[in-house]
């Protein structure tokens, strides 16, 4: 076992929605996240990934099971708002900045009620905006910033109270490719240099490959949990999930060769070698 402290634990975590036809959004999820991890949760719509994030962030309550964050059992917390403000940082797909406040004032919002003086809040918010590359935009309103800049303010706000974990729900979903890549770079840097634990929910495999651990959810369960060892192995995992990968793993070489217009002699050796690679990758 790692000697790093545990930041998140879930035990048999279940969430059921609906009074009539029940929807089991989470179905007995057991999960451990260690301090300093940088990980992704992926899965199709309705797989439970955002529900899991909401449970960890105390934005929703489980139907059964246990969630422990930074050593605190969420079921026993009296002031949930205060817990969220000092323990969890949130970055959402839409930045959710207050339009009438400047970038600096938006970063200060979570600091209110945490025992800091105005001077301390100002100093910290300015430091965080410098950290995310917005030292020259502190006095700008959200409407005066680009989408990528607004999301950088949201990242700075998430760091306001030095949280135990940052939960990022599709943080690049509303951004163009370049801005999205810059936000991912920023989160990676914050994790690497600051040791901040970061959990990202995303549909984008390119973002997932930038992290160091990928959880894949299906039907409310964690279907796969693996460490990112190399980009080549991640390519093989992606291939295994494709239609071509399914055919290869099922041993349906004739279908593959027919679809690509190759003779059996041309493709037989290559297909067998590729199938062995897929088998080996998925077995780990």
Between the first and last Cα atoms, what is the distance in angstroms? Answer: 18 Å
- Overall radius of gyration: 22 Å
Order of helices and strands: EEEHEEHEHHHEHEHEEHHHH
Number of helices: 11
Q: Summarize model confidence as the mean pLDDT.
A: 87
> Strands of the biggest beta sheet: in what spatial order?
6-7-8-3-9-10
**Helix- and strand-based class?**
alpha/beta
Taken together, the total number of domains comes to 2
Please characterize this protein's 3D structure.
This protein is α/β, with parallel strands linked by helices and 284 residues long. The protein folds into two domains: 6-96 and 164-228, 3-Layer(aba) Sandwich (Rossmann fold); 236-283, no CATH class. It is built from eleven helices and ten strands. Helix 4 packs across helix 5 and helix 8 (231-241) crosses helix 9. It is globular and about 75 Å long.
């Amino acid at each position: 076992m790692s000697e790093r402290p545990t930041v998140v634990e879930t035990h048999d975590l279940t969430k059921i929605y609906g009074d009539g036809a029940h929807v089991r959004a989470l179905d007995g999820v057991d999960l451990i996240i260690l301090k300093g991890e940088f990980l992704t949760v992926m899965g199709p719509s309705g797989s439970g990934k955002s529900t899991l994030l909401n449970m960890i962030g105390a934005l929703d309550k489980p139907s059964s099971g246990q969630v422990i964050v930074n050593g605190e059992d969420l079921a026993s917390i009296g002031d949930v708002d205060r817990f969220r403000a000092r323990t969890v940082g949130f970055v959402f797909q839409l930045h959710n900045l207050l339009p009438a406040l400047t970038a600096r004032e938006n970063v200060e919002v979570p600091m209110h009620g945490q025992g800091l003086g105005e001077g301390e809040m100002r100093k910290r918010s300015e430091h965080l905006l410098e950290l995310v590359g917005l030292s020259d935009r502190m006095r700008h309103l959200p409407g005066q910033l680009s989408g990528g800049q607004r999301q950088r303010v949201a990242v700075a706000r998430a760091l306001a109270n030095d949280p135990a974990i940052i939960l990022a729900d599709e943080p690049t979903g509303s951004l163009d490719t370049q801005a999205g890549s810059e936000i991912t770079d920023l989160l990676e840097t914050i994790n690497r240099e600051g040791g901040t634990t970061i959990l990202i929910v995303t549909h984008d495999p390119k973002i997932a490959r930038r992290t160091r651990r990928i959880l894949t959810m299906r039907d409310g369960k964690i279907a796969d949990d693996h460490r990112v060892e190399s980009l080549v192995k991640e390519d093989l995992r992606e291939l295994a999930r494709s239609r071509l990968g399914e055919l290869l793993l099922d041993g349906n070489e004739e279908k593959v060769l027919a679809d690509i217009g190759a003779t059996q002699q041309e493709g037989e050796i290559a297909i067998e070698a590729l199938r062995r690679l897929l088998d080996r990758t998925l077995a780990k």
